[in-house]
Amino acid sequence: MATRSPLATFKDLCIDAVDAGQLAAFWGAVLGLRVEERPDGMTLLVGPTPQHTVWINQVPEPVSTKQRAHLDVHAASVEDVLDLGASPYDLESFRWKVLRDPEGGELCVFEREQVPDYRLYELNVDCADPEPIATWWARVLGGKLGHEDGVPWWWVEDVPGMPFEGIVFAPVPEPKIVKNRIHWDVDTPDLAALVAAGASVVRERDDEIAWTVLADPDGNEFCAFVGE
Q1: With b meaning 16 or more CB within 10 Å and e meaning fewer, what string describes 177-211?
Q2: In angstroms, rounded to a whole number, what is the distance separating the alpha carbons of residues 168 and 139?
Q3: What mean pLDDT do residues 108-116 have?
Q4: Is residue 3 in a domain?
Q5: Cα(171)–Cα(173) distance, rounded to whole angstroms?
Q6: Which interval of the chain is the signal sequence (predicted)?
Q7: Is the pTM above the cut of 0.90?
């Protein structure tokens, strides 16, 4: 059977922030990326490839509820991340450590004996039913669907161009109620194909934005760039 071509390719990540400068400094240090402030006022983190880019988007709304998308990171110790400005949230319940960034957003720290230069491990996304949404994103991005018996989460790995290990979809009981503060961007040759596959249009490309804001079948926002 012929393998279907992916509908999109991974482009980069975006994080909302009330104070873009402060959060950029924190995440740049945590992830091992360089902070860059552009003449147009945009703040971003840059690394060895365009796909390492993390846009820090200034927004007026503070964190108001548990994030449905958060970052998991490598670190030599949780103390290293706390020293950069994080605060402890749950250091006992899991084999990883749950912290909050300076604006209250959750992140998970995985302590390692060997820490890579780029320290983003994976992107974690809450959902009601992990298997169908992980399957959807594996199809869209051309990644490999992953699952192990005895664990409730599913993941997408080996995504072409994505510089971290994977996107993990974990089940939670609560519904999505606010816009995700962390999202990812994609490049696509065919916006209509994404919509036909199950994405919905949140905002059309217009004179103010050069991309289309979509939502996946679970309502997670992502931005699609055509012909970039």
Answers
A1: eebbbbbbbbbbeebeebeeebbeeeeebeeeeeb
A2: 15
A3: 97
A4: no
A5: 7
A6: none
A7: yes
